[in-house]
Specification:
The chain is low in regular secondary structure. It has a domain at about 1-55. The chain has helices at about 65, 85-95; strands at about 25, 35. A two-stranded antiparallel sheet has the order 1-2.
Length: about 100
């Protein structure tokens, strides 16, 4: 795959140029089709590519970081349960 900015050859599957860091393709959020950076509509499904794809703000994570699951989050939860004595008999009487 040739970089549109610096014309460097990059291996298939790369999303950013190994030489200059330019975006090599734009994956469609709807179907995943790999589009050219300048495309405005997906070549696979026709969806708009108007929303810019996220650009990493720092160095790319290594393989160990990508494979690790997201950290668990502890949340507070309140559960309320109510049991009425004789509710089954009462519901049978009112149900008719």
């Amino acid at each position: 795959m040739t970089c549109p900015r610096c014309q460097a050859e990059n291996r298939e599957g790369r999303r950013f140029c190994a030489r200059c860091g330019a975006e090599l393709s734009r994956p469609c959020a709807a179907c995943g089709f790999s589009n050219e950076p300048a495309d405005e509509f997906c070549g696979g499904c026709g969806a708009s590519l108007a929303a810019p794809s996220p650009v990493p703000s720092g160095p790319a994570p290594d393989d160990a970081q990508r494979a690790s699951p997201p950290e668990a989050e502890r949340r507070q939860l309140t559960v309320m349960f109510c049991d009425l004595v004789g509710s089954t008999a009462l519901s049978e009487q009112l149900g008719h």
